[in-house]
Amino acid sequence: MRWIYPPLGMLILTMLGGIYTFSLFYAPIQEYYSIENIAPLTLAFSLITLTYSIFIIPAGVLYDRTGPRVPLFLGALVIFIGYFIASQMRYFEWDTAKLLYYSGLGVALGLGIALVDSVPRPLVSKWFPDKTGTAVGIVAVGFGIGAAVMTPIISYFLSVTSVFETFIYVGLIYLVVISLCAIPMRDPKIEKKDEEISLNLSETLRDRRFHVLWLAFFLSTFAGLMVIGNAAPILREGAKQTPELAELIPAFLIITSFANALGRLIWGLLLDKIGVVNSMLLNFATTAASSLALSKAFSTLLVFPLASIIYANYGGALAIFPSATAIFFGKKYAGRIYGAIFTAWGFSGLVAPYAGGLIRDVMRSYTSAFYLAALSAFLAVLLVFLSRRFFR
């Protein structure tokens, strides 16, 4: 019976993974409103992660108190409302329309994602105390393949109708699929022995391991979020030297989406084999190296394998940290503790995409943005290496 939950959780996160196609909306909005700069558009992606960071802990508390169905149904509805708000942009000039863009595709989408995302990984960690890394990795695959699933769907709608009508169709897809997946969801009964080893949120927030994990999560996901939030503009920038890159943007999004998904499964399995600390060190180090290499190679076809490594490691981090949370702090209060640790992802998502776009606008190139991403990942390596004694 418990094996129904990983595929259901994976399907739910596949829908949420559609956020990684966000940059597909930039070009038609730029064209409609004659906007030249990227940063004003990436700000909505940053607002998603800010709103997520604010509401993921309350969403986790809601899940712990009501079970999984309420936050899933409510989140699906809020996501639809967000896309509907954005669809109304067409009736206004940019000075007014941007308020709908930021509130719909930024704030509302972030709230809906927080509500939905508070459920799948904590739920399967409760059902699979014996295979936490593997089970969470399977669920996390969904977030990784989301772009591969949603890119052709969104690209199709954009090719046959306006970006504003596309928002409506995409919102309806989210509402229907997530709501259907929510119906069979339920928590297992918590055994007494599990209750005794579970820290509550207050105890967790005072634990030194939490502080290390939070900061490491923030630093390590910076590179992935920066590339994800600027994916299409990065390839368009690279197309100035390698013209075929402009035609390969949909292929890039699909390939890196599969890398993202595969990374979640591989790193989840690897965590069960070599442990949390070794998994983090290996993940962060290869992210730093790939980011540094991309600073020189993003305008060549090498952008595909190098970005795929970053996506795979980013996806891996989203399997490593939920698993580490369950392993170190227990499962009774998994929803709210998971929410607390994932505020790090939210703040990284607030900073990274906008920083990447802003550096490009100021420097007229993404080179320095990749330097910053490499530095962030290296600092994550240093932090975990110096703090490894806390996890023994």
TrEMBL record:
Isomerase recorded as keyword: no
InterPro entries per record: MFS, MFS_dom, MFS_trans_sf, Proton-linked_MCT
Domain of life: Archaea
One Pfam short name: MFS_1
Keyword annotations: Membrane, Transmembrane, Transmembrane helix
Transmembrane stretches, start-end: 7-29, 41-63, 70-87, 99-116, 136-158, 164-183, 212-236, 248-270, 282-304, 310-330, 337-356, 368-386
Domain Major facilitator superfamily (MFS) profile: 2-392
GO molecular-function terms, A-Z: transmembrane transporter activity
Keyword Membrane in record: yes
Name of the protein in its database record: Major facilitator superfamily MFS_1
Organism: Ferroglobus placidus (strain DSM 10642 / AEDII12DO)
